[in-house]
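Friendly challenge for the regulars: who can give me the C-alpha cells for this chain first? No prize, just bragging rights.
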Amino acid sequence: MEPGGRVSVSLLKKLFVPCLIFYLVISGCAAPGSGLGRFRLNGNIQNYQAQGEEIRVKIMLPKKYGLGGFDRAFGSPEDYGNKDLIFVETLDLEGKFTASHRSVYHASFFIIPPLGFIPKKPPYPVYVIGFSNVKHEAHLIKFKKEIPQEEIMDMSTRTKLKPEEAYWHLTGGKMIYEPVEIEFEEGETDVGPGWNIFLEFSHDLPKDIATKQ
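First reply, four minutes later:
Bragging rights claimed.
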C-alpha cells in the first residue's frame, strides 16, 4: 500500500494471476462439442395374445433431442442436420418389439476445471410411441432418474387422456447404461456403452374405444 491509501502496481500484478485462475475455476472454461449416444429400446406387452391382425409400433425420437447450449437460439433443429427419427416395428408372437439407434447430442469439453466432456452419458431420450390398432393414441415417454413416465394424448382432439380412457398403458420399465448392440439395415452392428431401455405395456378396452378408432 502506497502513501495515500493507493494500491501499488506491483501488488496488483501479483494478485492478477491468482484472481484470474480463481475466476476461471469458478466460472468454467469449456469448448463446445458433441457426443454420439447409443440407444436400444426393448418393448414387451404383458399377457399378449396374438390376434389375426398384426400390430405395428411406431416410435419417434423428436428432432429437438440432443440440442443444448445456444443451439436453439442460433437455429432450428434442421439447421444442425436433425430430423424426427422414426421406427416402425411389428410385435412378435410373444408381444415384444425392439428398436435401436444412434443419436448425436450436445456436450461441452471443460478445460478448467479439467472435467472432460459433460455430460458423461447421453441425455435421457424422449419417445412418442403409438400402436397401429388404436391410431388416435400417442404415448409420450419421458425418463426421470432412469424410470419411464407416461403422458397419453388423444391425437384426434389434441387432449390428454386419463389412464382409464386409454387402450394402451405403460406399466413399468427402466433404463440401464451398459454395453448395447445397435443394428443397422445393412446388417452391420455397433457395440458400445449406451442406454438399454426396457418398457412394459398392457392393454384394456375402454368403453368408448369403438367410437374413436
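The longest strand covers residues 29-45. The two ends are 84 Å apart (CA to CA). Your move, everyone else.
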